[in-house]
Amino acid sequence: SNTCGKSLLELNLPERVRVASIQRTERSFVPTAEEKIEPNDQITLFGDPSRLSKTATSLRSNTEKEKGANVVILGGGEYGLSLAQMIGPWNCQIRIFEKNQDHAETLAEELAGKATVIHADGASLNELLEEQVGVADFFIATTQSDEDNVMTCLQAKNLGTKNCIPLIHRTDYANAVNQAKSQLGIKEVISPREVVRRELMRFITSDKYHIVKKISAGEIIETTIREKSKVADKTVGEISLPPGSIFVALIKGIHAKVPSASDMIEIGDTVFSIVSEEAKKSFLKLVAK
């Protein structure tokens, strides 16, 4: 890639697109603007989805640009359809298994040109073999059956699929599979109930901040700006965040965006940030007071 050796400042990224973290060999960190891109870096971007795909493509090498991710989705219900629509702009090769013929035909019309809909029972090993699921980069099982989702992920993994992700509705099942996911070869477990529980906790807690998710580079922290916050009524460009922290989203009312240097942070706004363990104390003292 021609971006290697350039600092983040020199990349001249589109407005409201930013590099949130870099994975370099065994180390993952929140970069400063002066950090230079090195070969084999894995970069996490935040920004407007319509701009992210083009930006990600520009950062890849020429050989990587030729082929998008190969994604297989089991189940064309609400979750499967939404997922296909969400990742469609990313130049992914999408296949969806749907065993109900009428629904498969409806999906094929709705996703024409964006995904291939296969009328077949994706829980069948023979169907997985016939469709060469083993060459897929991702196998994501989204049916209403927890058992089918887990078992087909295990079958796909055995066939060679790189990343397998089951949707599991029962919390006890989700917890059990999540604890054993490394042994099972499962990349991640998605539990709708757990997602709802975490979202509800955001609104009933009195804490000054909320940890949305822990990631390799640190934590994604949600903060509602209060009167005593040192960043209140300042533009992003005026705020000197501690090294190892970065604002990745700013919510004003119902409107969300990746903040730019000219955006004003006001009392009542909600800010999402990625913060390293080393920067957490200083960051919270500055933002979440």
List the helices and strands and how they pair.
Elements: H1 8-11, E1 17-24, E2 27-29, E3 42-47, H2 49-59, H3 62-65, E4 70-74, H4 78-87, E5 93-98, H5 101-110, E6 116-119, H6 125-130, E7 138-141, H7 146-159, E8 163-166, H8 171-179, H9 181-184, H10 192-204, E9 209-215, E10 218-224, E11 234-235, E12 245-252, E13 255-257, E14 264-265, E15 270-275, H11 280-287
Parallel strand pairs: 4-5, 4-7, 5-6, 7-8
Antiparallel strand pairs: 1-2, 1-3, 9-10, 10-15, 11-14, 12-13, 12-15
Would you give an account of this structure?
It is built from eleven helices and 15 strands. The protein has 289 residues and is an alpha/beta fold. It has three domains: 58 residues, Alpha-Beta Plaits; 126 residues, NAD(P)-binding Rossmann-like Domain (Rossmann fold, 3-Layer(aba) Sandwich); 81 residues, Regulator of K+ conductance, C-terminal domain (Alpha-Beta Plaits, 2-Layer Sandwich), CATH 3.30.70. The strands form four sheets. It has a five-stranded parallel beta sheet, with helices on both faces. The protein is globular and about 60 Å long. The model has no long low-confidence stretch (mean pLDDT 90).
